[in-house]
Design goal:
single chain; 253 residues; alpha+beta; five-stranded antiparallel sheet; 7 strands
């Protein structure tokens, strides 16, 4: 095992020890567990299907883990992935989805073109496709650094663009109308009473047909932007478990 592989394994172990209650974003899904590395035969079969992997991805998958603990909701076992065509305008033609960012958005490894080896967000429902890490290794190391220092991961989508924000705004507008309040003025006890009506699982986030790992209308887990929105309203009475759990990505079913 290389020095980098040993270091990353030790870092994941330390993160798990510091988050035994699995409170960090995505931890309840991957639980800091690492899938067994790929064998030479498994790697050969994968590359025969999707093409040659970037060197750092190949090393990670064969020396550390084929998937499991990692950024956002974890690294989906890489040998279960299927290459997908890039959205229009991307500087790569084929990419390999490696992680669910939430709300149906994917982290995709560019397999070719000028961006080969980079990690991109594929949020087709929002017409967003942009680089989020210069390499797979940088993607994982950034996750380790942020979790170790109790910092949020980057959302990679603008605030308020997800359906959850619109759903909460619509609900609060309805509550304001019920109370005869002017639009956008609900606060204090009125706000707490309104949010208390939304118990655990009250809100479901549905994927659109544009999400490669989810069928249209399937329930998905929230992205970082949505999780931050819920967290910001927790002190006002919004249940942190207000969003119903989503289905696993297709490769995990």
């Amino acid at each position: 095992m290389s020095e980098l592989a040993a270091t990353l394994r030790n870092a994941v172990r330390a993160l798990a020890d510091a988050d035994r209650s699995l409170r960090r974003f995505g931890a309840a899904h991957h639980r800091y567990a690492l899938a067994p590395p790929l064998t030479a035969a498994q790697l050969a079969a994968l590359e025969a299907r999707v093409g040659a992997l970037p060197d750092d991805v190949r090393a990670f998958a064969t020396e550390i883990a084929a998937g499991g603990a990692g950024p956002y909701y974890g690294i989906v076992p890489i040998d279960r992935g299927e290459a997908l065509a890039a959205p229009r305008g991307a500087p790569w033609a084929r990419g390999l989805p490696i992680a669910h960012l939430g709300c149906g958005y994917l982290a995709v490894l560019a397999l070719d073109g000028a961006a080969r080896g980079e990690i991109w967000i594929d949020a087709r429902a929002l017409a967003i496709c942009a680089p989020i890490a210069p390499s797979f290794t940088a993607f994982v190391v950034d996750w380790i650094d942020r979790v170790a220092h109790a910092r949020w991961l980057d959302a990679h989508v603008p605030p308020g663009v997800c359906p959850l924000a619109a759903a909460l705004s619509g609900f609060l507008a309805h509550c304001e109308a019920e109370r005869g309040l002017a639009a956008g003025t609900i606060a204090g006890a009125d706000l707490r009473a309104a949010l208390a009506r939304l118990g655990p699982g009250a809100i479901e986030i549905a994927a659109t047909g544009a999400a490669p790992w989810f069928a249209d209308g399937e329930r998905v887990d929230p992205c970082v932007a949505c999780a931050q929105l819920v967290d910001s309203l927790a002190d006002a009475g919004l249940a942190r478990e207000v969003v119903a759990p989503g289905l696993p990505p297709a490769p995990l079913r």
